[in-house]
């Protein structure tokens, strides 16, 4: 599935945004919350082949003008929770790399100024969403389409996720994406958490 996912982060109207992006408590876990795009009506729930907590996938409609090597292609709706530790690990790595190249006027060489931290957090969340989408596609026995046909549209604005975010908190999101069924998948494996990174093209907000 390498090079097959295109992540588009699209801003949505304020009607779907909680202004302060509050943190809520769910089953003892701190969940950083932004208002989610409403779940679409209809569709067919997809039974996962691998265990992935906090994730659902629905097949919505067949894409008549889209070709796939694995047969018919469909639009899917999904929701999932991004592991807060994954975001934290991404943040640590990005900050480490940023410090190696940091040379901002008025700051010591290697020091990242406070105003740059939200952007690092945003990139950390984006990368974790990509990994989570990837894991969800695999867990449900599906396969991303190639090229622009395989784009993923995340319904929530990452900039709103960053507001008030506490590093390490999980984040829930929804998305629509075009997929086909992966005929090579088997139900023998079980995963406990998303793993693996792919090359993607990301459109910044």
TrEMBL record:
Domain Trigger factor ribosome-binding bacterial: 66-177
Pfam families xrefs: Trigger_N (PF05697)
UniProt keyword terms in alphabetical order: Signal
Residue stretches spanning the membrane: none
Gene3D superfamilies, per the entry: Trigger factor ribosome-binding domain (3.30.70.1050)
Signal peptide (UniProt feature, chain positions): 1-15
GO biological process: protein folding; protein transport
Keyword Signal annotated: yes
Protein name: Trigger factor ribosome-binding bacterial domain-containing protein
Organism: Fistulifera solaris
Lineage: Eukaryota, Sar, Stramenopiles, Ochrophyta, Bacillariophyta
């Amino acid at each position: 599935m390498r090079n097959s996912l295109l992540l588009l982060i699209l801003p949505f109207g304020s009607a779907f945004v909680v202004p302060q992006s509050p943190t809520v408590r769910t089953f003892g876990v701190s969940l950083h919350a932004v208002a989610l795009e409403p779940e679409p009506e209809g569709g067919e729930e997809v039974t996962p082949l691998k265990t992935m907590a906090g994730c659902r996938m629905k097949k919505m409609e067949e894409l008549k003008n889209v070709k796939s090597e694995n047969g018919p292609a469909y639009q899917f709706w999904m929701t999932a929770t991004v592991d807060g530790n994954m975001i934290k690990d991404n943040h640590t790595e990005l900050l480490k790399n940023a410090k190696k190249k940091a040379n901002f006027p008025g700051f010591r060489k290697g020091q990242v100024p406070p105003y740059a931290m939200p952007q690092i957090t945003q990139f950390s969340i984006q990368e974790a969403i990509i990994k989570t989408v990837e894991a969800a596609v695999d867990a449900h026995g599906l396969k991303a389409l190639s090229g622009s046909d395989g784009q993923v549209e995340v319904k929530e604005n990452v900039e709103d996720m960053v507001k008030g975010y506490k590093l390490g908190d999980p984040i829930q999101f929804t998305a629509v994406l075009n997929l086909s069924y992966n005929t090579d998948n088997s139900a023998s494996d079980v995963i406990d958490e998303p793993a693996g990174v792919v090359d993607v093209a990301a459109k910044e907000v």
